[in-house]
Amino acid sequence: MGEGAPKAVNDHVRKSMQGNKRANTKPELVMRERLRAAGLTGYRLQWKVPGRPDVAWPGKKVALFVNGCFWHRCPHCNPSVPKSHVEYWSVKFERNVERDRANIAKLEEDGWSVHVVWECQLKKKVIDDTMAELLPVLARQLGKPLAD
Ligand SMILES: [Zn+2]
């Protein structure tokens, strides 16, 4: 937690914050399992380019971020906002969103293709739809055939 963080944060917030800095979160693992099943292997984790994409194929300059909805402020599922310290959180969230945007812009300027998949798009009910859209695009960019 950064300087000046309020002491009283509820469990949900604390959990999300811990999840933020950690690699190998559940959505990341689910994503990687799907990539392997589709034959899109050879990726590197947390590659050292702006934003440290969760999954990257550096040789092909293809990057994939798996974003937690709360922390990165998902545009799809309207994540909750903590009820107290509203000002603190809104500043923090704005910074996160801005940082994400800047990282993606830097990567794209450097010739990367960037994909962002949100945690809520990897839930059981919707993951098949999400991957049905994502995998063919990735396969094309990577020059790999998709496994069945
Ligand atoms: Zn979401």
TrEMBL record:
| Region of interest: Disordered | 1-25
Q: Which domain of life is it from?
A: Bacteria
Q: Name one Pfam family in it.
A: Vsr
The molecular function GO annotations come to: endonuclease activity; hydrolase activity
| Keyword annotations of the record | DNA damage, DNA repair, Endonuclease, Hydrolase, Nuclease
GO biological process: what's one of them? mismatch repair
> Which SUPFAM superfamilies does the record associate with it?
Restriction endonuclease-like (SSF52980)
Q: Which InterPro entries match?
A: DNA_mismatch_endonuc_vsr, Restrct_endonuc-II-like
Provide the family line: Belongs to the Vsr family.
What is this protein identified as? DNA mismatch repair protein Vsr
Could you tell me which species this protein originates from? Answer: Berryella intestinalis
Q: What is the lineage of its organism?
A: Bacteria, Bacillati, Actinomycetota, Coriobacteriia, Eggerthellales
